[in-house]
């Protein structure tokens, strides 16, 4: 029931029109069902100076209190700081889709006199997650791989309004080859709209100048207009200027919103006119979560894995390769066999040549012997002829012959008749 239509000019694919329902249009639904059943794993890391609102933003982002709410402290007491890398996991569900979310909180840096190596434990943490994934991949049974790799790293930038600090550049340069970097301007409510716009420009210029690779929204070609506009809108907001809050406040017009209340008004987290929080969440969760996971797996992890294996001296060993590749083994056997045949042929040729040479020299020798015999006989005959000539002359001149000579002469006379 396949009716061929005009072949596609772009490629050699012949498009066929179906006359009946086959059912593969249901494939996306199958994938969807399976993914929903399996659930998703996503790990997000937050990096930035202490007190920039990391915990607050993560709570805001996933609409849940991943971090236990901080107890109100007496004004004199010091706020507890994150002193070690902490990982908090939560299973969250939305419309039946399960997401196992892990947030990796890193201790705020910049608090020490010497901040030179503060990036080290963070990079080590990212790498140890790659290590654990590689180890799981190499297990005999690898059906249940837990993906704890960091899929996105929210890098919090202090809202100074100037440009990136040296320490930010250092951090980003250390991180950008190992993780999807998403720069964020923290506590954007402390800057005016104009300051935010200027600051964004300066940050982007700094990032470009130092060749730092931040996560880029993929360019969707041939997609519907809505998707393309969404991608463009997200890209235009990077670095996202965000405001975090996990408390509900009342707006002057009587609405209840997540936001921060100030004497002069309310900053609404979910209001796109107030900050880029909505766009950040859209990028991270709604639009590019799969893209972030894919990029982590296909590029960042793959790159790291190759380098790791090479540094361990695991090259593409040809002997190992042959063992698992019968075609390569057959090829090698064929080459060996051909070499053996060629050797045998060369040996036979040599023996043949030797024999020919021997025969030739023997022939030459007998030829020479024959020639010598022939010469000998010729010489003897020549001598005999000379004697006979001599006798003839004597007979003709009337000189008597010796008895021996007479007999010869008789013979000669007999011969003459
Ligand atoms: P550590 O736990 O030390 O790593 O700090 P953190 O970066 O997690 O910051 P945290 O979320 O604890 O917030 C620090 C303070 O900043 C709190 O008093 C928050 O209420 C406040 N804060 C959080 N987000 C914002 C924001 O967007 N704007 C403003 N103005 N304050 C914020």
TrEMBL record:
<dbReference type="InterPro" id="IPR027417">
    <property type="entry name" value="P-loop_NTPase"/>
</dbReference>
<feature type="compositionally biased region" description="Basic residues">
    <location>
        <begin position="408"/>
        <end position="417"/>
    </location>
</feature>
<keyword id="KW-0547">Nucleotide-binding</keyword>
<feature type="region of interest" description="Disordered">
    <location>
        <begin position="381"/>
        <end position="417"/>
    </location>
</feature>
<dbReference type="GO" id="GO:0005525">
    <property type="term" value="F:GTP binding"/>
</dbReference>
<dbReference type="InterPro" id="IPR016491">
    <property type="entry name" value="Septin"/>
</dbReference>
<dbReference type="Pfam" id="PF00735">
    <property type="entry name" value="Septin"/>
</dbReference>
<comment type="similarity">
    <text>Belongs to the TRAFAC class TrmE-Era-EngA-EngB-Septin-like GTPase superfamily. Septin GTPase family.</text>
</comment>
<protein>
    <submittedName>
        <fullName>Septin AspB</fullName>
    </submittedName>
</protein>
<feature type="compositionally biased region" description="Basic and acidic residues">
    <location>
        <begin position="381"/>
        <end position="397"/>
    </location>
</feature>
<dbReference type="InterPro" id="IPR030379">
    <property type="entry name" value="G_SEPTIN_dom"/>
</dbReference>
<dbReference type="GO" id="GO:0005938">
    <property type="term" value="C:cell cortex"/>
</dbReference>
<feature type="domain" description="Septin-type G">
    <location>
        <begin position="38"/>
        <end position="311"/>
    </location>
</feature>
<dbReference type="GO" id="GO:0032156">
    <property type="term" value="C:septin cytoskeleton"/>
</dbReference>
<keyword id="KW-0342">GTP-binding</keyword>
């Amino acid at each position: 029931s396949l009716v061929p239509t005009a072949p596609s000019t772009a490629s050699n694919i012949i498009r066929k029109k179906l006359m009946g329902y086959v059912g593969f249009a249901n494939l996306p639904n199958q994938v969807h069902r399976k993914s929903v059943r399996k659930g998703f794993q996503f790990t997000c890391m937050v990096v930035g100076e202490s007190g920039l609102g990391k915990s607050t933003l993560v709570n805001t982002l996933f609409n849940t209190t991943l971090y236990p709410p901080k107890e109100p402290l007496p004004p004199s007491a010091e706020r507890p700081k994150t002193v070690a890398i902490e990982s908090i996991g939560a299973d969250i569900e939305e419309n039946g889709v399960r997401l196992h979310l892990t947030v990796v909180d890193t201790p705020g840096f910049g608090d020490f006199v010497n901040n030179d190596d503060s990036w080290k434990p963070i990079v080590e943490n990212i790498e140890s997650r790659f290590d654990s994934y590689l180890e799981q991949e190499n297990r005999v049974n690898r059906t249940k791989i837990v993906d704890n790799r960091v899929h996105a790293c929210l890098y919090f930038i202090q809202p100074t309004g100037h440009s990136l600090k040296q320490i930010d550049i250092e951090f980003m340069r250390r991180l950008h080859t190992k993780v999807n970097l998403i720069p964020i301007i923290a506590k954007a409510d402390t800057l005016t709209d104009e300051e935010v716009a200027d600051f964004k420009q300066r940050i982007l210029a700094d990032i470009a100048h130092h060749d730092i690779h931040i996560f880029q929204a993929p360019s969707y070609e041939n997609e519907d207009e809505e998707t393309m506009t969404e991608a463009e809108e997200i890209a235009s907001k990077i670095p996202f200027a965000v405001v975090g809050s996990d408390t509900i406040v009342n707006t002057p017009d009587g609405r209840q919103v997540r936001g921060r209340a100030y004497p002069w008004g309310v900053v609404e987290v979910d209001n796109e006119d107030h900050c880029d929080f909505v766009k950040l969440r859209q990028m991270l969760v709604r639009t590019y979560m799969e893209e972030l996971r894919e990029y982590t797996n296909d590029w960042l992890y793959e790159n790291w894995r190759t380098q790791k294996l090479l540094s361990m001296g695991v090259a593409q060993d040809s002997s190992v390769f042959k063992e698992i590749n019968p075609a390569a083994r057959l090829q090698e056997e064929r080459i060996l066999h051909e070499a053996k045949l060629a050797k045998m042929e060369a040996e036979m040729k040599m023996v043949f040549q030797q024999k020919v040479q021997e025969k030739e020299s023997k022939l030459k020798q007998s030829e020479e012997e024959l020639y010598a015999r022939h010469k000998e006989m010729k010489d003897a005959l020549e001598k005999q002829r000379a004697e006979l000539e001599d006798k003839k002359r004597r007979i003709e001149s009337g000189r008597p012959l010796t008895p021996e000579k007479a007999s010869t002469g008789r013979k000669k006379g007999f011969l003459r008749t």
